[in-house]
Design brief:
It is a single chain. This protein has helices at about 45-55, 80-95, 105-115, 145-150, 155-165, 180-190, 190-210, 240-250, 270-284, and strands at about 1-5, 15-20, 30-35, 60-65, 100, 125-130, 230-235, 255-260. The protein is α/β, with parallel strands linked by helices. The protein has 2 domains: about 1-135 and about 215-284, Alpha/Beta hydrolase fold, catalytic domain (Rossmann fold); about 145-210, no CATH class. An 8-stranded mixed beta sheet has the order 1-2-4-3-5-6-7-8, with helices on both faces. The model has no long low-confidence stretch (mean pLDDT about 90).
C-alpha cells in the first residue's frame, strides 16, 4: 500500500491510499469514494480484495473525504461542490479513469460524473453500490434538523437513532420509538466501528445535508455515461433499490445489478461475490 497526501484547490489535503500496481495507467485504476461516517482505512479489506480481483497491472485508489481520517476538516463553505472538486483533484493526482462510489460516496460519484460530462474528467467507467441519492423527494429530510440538533448537543445516541430512522423509512426499525432506539444505539455504539462513527458525526451533518436536502430528478442524471453500472444489495433497505431502478431507467445504456446476498455494508465488508462482480465490470 502507498500512502500520500494530495493538496486540494482550497489549500486542504486529502489522504490517498493506493493498492495494487502503484504505477498502473489511468484506464486501469479504480477510484473508490466511501460512504458517510467511514474512513479510507475501513475500506482497506475491500481495496485489497478488489486490487487482487482486478489482477496484475491494476490499482485501487481510495481517499479520506473531508473531515475524516488524515484529510483536513470540511471547509466553512462545504457543499457537494467541495466533494466534486475533490474527486477532480484525485483524478488529476492518479490519472484514474474509473470510479466506484458506495452509499453517500455513490451520490458524490454520480454528481461528479454529471459535472464532468463532456470533459476529459468524464469517467470511462462508473459504478455505484447503494447510491444515496434523493430523487423526487424519495427520502424525507424532515429528520435532518433534529439529527443536527442532537449532534450539536452531544447526544450521540439520539443522533444515531434519528439518522437510523430517517435513512430507513418504512422499515421496522423506523417504527421503533425514538427513546428505545436511542437506548439501543447507546449499547451498539460501544463497538470499535461505532466509536469511529461517533467521532465522525459532526462531519456527517454537512455531508448528509449536501446529499439529501436538494431533491434531484431522474432527468438530471441522463447525462451520465452509458457505461454506468448501478448496483444494489438484495438485502439493502428499499430506498436504495428504488433509487437504483429509477437511475437505471434514466441513463440510456446503463446496467442494473442486484447482489443476491448483498446488504448495505457489503462493500467495506469485502463480500466475495460483490468484489467479483465489481472487478468483472471494470475489466469488461
Amino acid at each position: 500500500m502507498r500512502e500520500r497526501d494530495i493538496k486540494t484547490h482550497d489549500g486542504g489535503k486529502l489522504a490517498l491510499y493506493t493498492y495494487g500496481e502503484e504505477d498502473a495507467p489511468g484506464e486501469r485504476r479504480v477510484i473508490v469514494i466511501g460512504g458517510a461516517f467511514l474512513t479510507a482505512l475501513i475500506y482497506r479489506p475491500f481495496s485489497i480484495a478488489l486490487a487482487k480481483g482486478l489482477g496484475d497491472g491494476w490499482a485501487v485508489d481510495v481517499y479520506d473525504r473531508r473531515g475524516r481520517g488524515k484529510s483536513t476538516d470540511q471547509p466553512h463553505n462545504y457543499s457537494m461542490a467541495t466533494e466534486i472538486a475533490d474527486v477532480r483533484t484525485i483524478m488529476d493526482a492518479t490519472d484514474g479513469r474509473n470510479i466506484l462510489g458506495h452509499s453517500l460516496g455513490g451520490s458524490v460519484a454520480l454528481n461528479a460524473a454529471m459535472a464532468f460530462a463532456g470533459t476529459h474528467h468524464e469517467p470511462a467507467k462508473l459504478a455505484v453500490y447503494d447510491a444515496a441519492v434523493n430523487i423526487d423527494g424519495s427520502m424525507s429530510t424532515d429528520w435532518l434538523a433534529g439529527f443536527a440538533d442532537a449532534v450539536d448537543a452531544g447526544d450521540v445516541s439520539r443522533a444515531m437513532a434519528r439518522m437510523k430512522r430517517g435513512m430507513q423509512p418504512g422499515t421496522a426499525l423506523a417504527r421503533v420509538p425514538e427513546p428505545i432506539l436511542a437506548g439501543l444505539m447507546a449499547v451498539v455504539s460501544r463497538t470499535k466501528v461505532n466509536k469511529l462513527f461517533r467521532e465522525l458525526l459532526p462531519s456527517g451533518v454537512g455531508e448528509l445535508k449536501a446529499a439529501f436536502e436538494a431533491d434531484a430528478t431522474p432527468r438530471d442524471f441522463s447525462v451520465l455515461p452509458s457505461t454506468t453500472h448501478f448496483m444494489v444489495g438484495k438485502r439493502s433497505p428499499q430506498f436504495y433499490k428504488v433509487t437504483a431502478a429509477r437511475l437505471n431507467r434514466a441513463v440510456a445504456g446503463s446496467t442494473l445489478e442486484v447482489s443476491p446476498r448483498g446488504f448495505h455494508g457489503s462493500v467495506p465488508a469485502a463480500v466475495k461475490e460483490l468484489v467479483h462482480d465489481i472487478s468483472d465490470y471494470f475489466k469488461r
